[in-house]
Amino acid sequence: MQGPLSSTFPIENRISSVTLRALKNHMDRAKHLPFVKRISDFHLLLLLSKFLDVNNDVPALADCVRRQAAVSEGYQLLIESLAAAS
């Protein structure tokens, strides 16, 4: 059985650093998918952990991904704002 995570987002431990531009590119490429599918990538969640509260926000997002449940509008706005800031 395949899990809910994808692996299309750039890996953070490579020579070039992952930036918010990568987040924007990823979100643009996946805009046809439901929001939870757009953020269902381990490396994307790692990037978000640099900008969101790692004790509250990231676990809440990870739970949405695990359950493939709707992501609250507030988190969607935060993530889209981060992507737009690139």
Task: Report on the architecture of this protein.
There is one protein chain. The protein has helices spanning 20-29, 35-38, 42-48, 57-67, 73-84. It has 86 residues and is mainly α. The protein has a domain at 35-84. The radius of gyration is 12 Å and the shape is globular. The model has no long low-confidence stretch (mean pLDDT 88).
Provide a compact summary of the structure.
GO terms for molecular function: ubiquitin binding; ubiquitin protein ligase binding. The protein has 86 residues and is mostly helical.
Name a few traits of the molecule:
mainly alpha, Npl4, 86 residues, 5 helices, ubiquitin protein ligase binding
Describe the secondary-structure layout.
Blueprint: H1 20-29, H2 35-38, H3 42-48, H4 57-67, H5 73-84
Helix pairs in contact: 1-5
Averaged pLDDT:
88
**SSE class:** mainly alpha
Helix content: 40-55%
Provide the gyration radius in Å: 12 Å
Please report the number of helical segments: 5
**Global outline:** globular
Query: Which residue ranges are poorly predicted, with pLDDT under 50 across at least 5 consecutive positions?
Result: none
Quaternary arrangement of the chains shown? single chain
Extended strand count: 0
Note the main sheet. none
Terminal residue distance: 36 Å
Strand content: under 5%
String of helices and strands:
HHHHH
